[in-house]
Amino acid sequence: MSHQVSVWRAAQLLGVARGVLQQKVRDGSLVLNDGWVSTDVLLKLYPDAQLEESGLLERVSQIRDEAFGKRLRERLLPSQEVLAQRLFAQSQELADVRKHLQRYHELVVGLQQDIRQQLDQHPGAADWLALEQQITQGLAQALATEPVDMLEVMDDMLKIMTAQVTVRPSGHQFPVEGRANLLQAGLHAGLKLNYGCGNGSCGMCKVRVISGEVAKTQHFDYALSEAEKAQGYTLMCCHTAASSELTLELLEACDPRDIPVQMIATQVRAITKLAPDTVLLHLQTPRSHRLRFLAGQSVQVGWTLAGHEDASTSYPLASCPCDERNLLFFITRNATDSFAQRLFAGDIKQGSTVTVVGPSGEFVLAEGHRPLVFAACDAGFGPIKSLIEHALSLDAAPSLSLFWLATRPDGHFYSNQCRAWSEALDQFEYELDTHPDAALGAWQIAQAMRADLFDIDCDFYLAGPVEFVRALHDELRTSGVAESQIASLVL
């Protein structure tokens, strides 16, 4: 029997990126019915799909093999209370279906008996005989065992382990896995949510529950009014999905101007030397004050100590907004950069207090489902890394390509991350190039793009020194790429 699932659920069941299925919808090879897709259509489109290799069954096997270890339970399964609520709701649904089936069966059997009585009273009535045969055959077909739809079984399992949340009015969807609260799950899915403290004190992550049930995950101090409670408002940071499907009403940030400027005193968590002239600076915000930003944006990073001049510089973030407490920056040695000078001189150490102010900038990922092409030069890899991680959390792009130019031998200071993405993700590919001249290196990258990507409708993101960005931008425009499909950040 055919079963209707959302595109999001279909991607999970088949183990493919959601963007791949959306691309098939656009080219007409996959047809939706009011936003839903039939499992029959999916199996025709993917006849060789091996359900046993899907992410869900791997998780189930892992749970069995590790005997429900504590760490695995917390990552993959909801709490016992939430799991019990979802199982109870599904049991109720099953009981209702059985009740209806029993009533229909009794109705058909009653009709069959009445027809037989009519046949006993009127043995020659051909119409009654034909009707009796039709009901008997129909009942036999209804009671016959049909092949099990594995996608439907998998969908039922997913509803217990992973809740699906739909956001109104945007229509965005995201899963809630393990013991994550709604805010954590939404941020990991790449949604631009409104939030503040993350611990139930400020009320900025307040949303209205339209349908479904939520369960409290932690105590919160913010007091909802009686009117808000009556209308179904709750805090995303302190609740999770108790039902397998949940619909929330909330407003998401549409562009960088919707993100307010924040000032946060952070602590230096680590300073890691990646190359002779490049370090990875890891700042951590307080639990009660996290930085809200969009992937690709920058912040002003400042440090002050008695006896020293203020050191402050704007740096693009190299971390994903889904981890808003841990802020990463790639910082290179620069004689004109006061903060970098203090950092490389050893004045700024682990445990030092560093102030961040922001975010700023409009070098952010655009809405859409086109293939994404990223080009970075030297430390321009920082904001590009943030964009790539955000794109991966959205799971909307059918493919991601990275071209990273280094103008010095140690310029590919984070190449292991590129290798890890490539090995883990089928839709990600990268190329590392080296050239001492940024402009000529940009031309070199443009030729590599021309061979594979210029005939594809892509979105391009460029970050690096002005000569690199300008040269590559001009090459793209000359090749016919629309200005609206090119985003640039000059460092």
* Helix and strand composition category: alpha/beta
The end-to-end span amounts to 57 Å
Strand count, sense and barrel status of the largest sheet are:
6 strands, antiparallel
Shape, per Cα inertia axes: elongated
The radius of gyration over CA amounts to: 28 Å
Query: Can you give the helix content as a percent range?
Result: 25-40%
Tell me how many strands there are.
Answer: 20
Question: With helices defined by DSSP (H or I, 4 residues minimum), what is the helix count?
Answer: 15
Overview features:
491 residues; alpha/beta; 6-stranded antiparallel β-sheet; 5-stranded mixed β-sheet; 15 helices; 20 strands; 38% helix; elongated
Structure characterization notes:
The chain is of the alpha/beta class and 491 residues long. Helices cover 38% and strands 24% of the residues. It has 15 helices and 20 strands. The strands form 5 sheets. A 6-stranded antiparallel sheet has the order 13-12-15-10-11-14. Helix 6 runs antiparallel to helix 7 (126-143) and helix 14 packs parallel to helix 15 (466-478).
Note the topology.
Elements: E1 4-6, H1 7-14, H2 18-26, E2 36-38, H3 39-45, H4 55-65, H5 70-76, H6 80-121, H7 126-143, H8 150-161, E3 162-168, E4 173-177, H9 182-188, E5 206-211, E6 214-216, H10 226-230, E7 233-235, E8 239-241, E9 245-249, E10 262-275, E11 278-284, E12 298-303, E13 311-316, E14 326-332, H11 338-345, E15 353-360, E16 372-377, H12 381-394, E17 400-406, H13 415-424, E18 428-434, H14 438-452, E19 459-464, H15 466-478, E20 486-490
Parallel strand pairs: 3-9, 16-17, 16-19, 17-18, 19-20
Antiparallel strand pairs: 1-2, 3-4, 5-7, 5-9, 6-8, 10-11, 10-15, 11-14, 12-13, 12-15
